[in-house]
Amino acid sequence: MTVKVLIVDDSSMLRNLLISLLPEEYNYDIDEATDGAEAIQKFSTVNYRLMFLDLHMPNVDGFEVLKTIATDTKDCSIIATSADIQDEAQKRAFDFGISGFIKKPFDYQDISNAVNSALE
Question: Rounded to two decimals, what is the model's pTM?
Answer without folding.
Answer: 0.94
